[in-house]
Amino acid sequence: MESFEIIALLVTGVGVVSFATIFTILYLSYANSSVAEYRAGQRDVELIEETIYNNINSTKRHRRLMRRIKQISFYVAIAILIPFLILSLYTKISVGVAMIGGRGVIVVASGSMSEKNPQNPNLSAITPYDNQFQTYDLIVLEKVDSPSELKMHDVVAFENDEGVNIIHRIVGTEGYGDSLRYVTCGDANNANDKYRPSFDDIIGRYTGDRIPVIGVFVMFLQSYSGIITLAAIIYCLVMIEYVGDKIYKAQGSRLTVLGNHIDFVKEMTFDESLHAKFTETVRFKNFEYTFDDEGFVSKIPIPNSTDDGDE
Fold first, then answer.
1. Residue 288: CB atoms within 10 Å
2. Most CB contacts within 10 A, which of 124, 184, 299, 304?
3. Cβ atoms of 116 and 123 closer than 8 Å
4. Which whole number is the average pLDDT over 111-124?
């Protein structure tokens, strides 16, 4: 990698890892706080309001349904993102093309095949090939098993002597047999390529199928920065699912407790005056101190108490 690529990778890595760390700390703190509040009954009004519109069984069914929808959405997202991550890693360590079942895709990184250049000596007015494509198109390649399958004017992807993937048209050949080399040229160029690829350099032949513009997204995913970002997204989704399950279970447990003590009738209507008042009792040196939302309430001696400590 060049120096600017290394710097970009480091900056992306530090940024993504920092985001994931902060996200983890904040979300875990939120989850732990929510679980504690549900267990302590501090969100009972929220649960009661939800249940008052339905009976307790309907509320539980609704909560299970919503939980199932969230789980399905999570698994669908993971099922999409993980293959993308694997594909990105595979293409990064290979030549940048994943050939599966004799076919593969590659991103067009330049405009050398975007149009027919009138000054291109290889393309005359009678040339019947109009299969040009634009920068950042995602094109489909097919594997070729022998030189006999290639013919003049085929568009092929090959790796040059600098390890760069090129997608150009075959405009001639040089040599014969094992020394056979292909002369290639981009339709938008006015000169042939200096490098003459051999058959071993050929990655695949363009099938004519392409998806416009989406290559920008694919190129990002194939970069180190994209791989790090994709891994971080997957991590965050897993965190949300795992921690969210703890909150869901705490809600369900508290709802069960409320259902055992409150008769939620289906016809019951919502009372706008419904509210909760929280009190806290502290015992210290034979006295019981009571506090509520607004502060200190009372101080009462504890009868027959010999406790000199606090609770």
1. 16
2. 184
3. yes
4. 85
Dihedrals φ, ψ of 146, to 5°? Answer: -155, 155
Across 175-195, average pLDDT: 90
The residue among 304, 272, 268, 275 whose CA lies nearest residue 288 is 304
Length of the chain: 311
pTM over 0.85: no
Banded model confidence at residue 142, pLDDT cuts 50, 70, 90: very high
Q: Where are the domains of the chain?
A: 3-95+225-261, 103-217, 277-311
The more confidently predicted of residues 107 and 296 is 107
DSSP code of 12? H
Phi, psi at 98, each rounded to 5°: -100, 105
Which residue from 113, 180, 108 is spatially nearest to 147, judged by alpha carbons?
180
Domain 103-217 coded CATH 2.60.120.1520: no
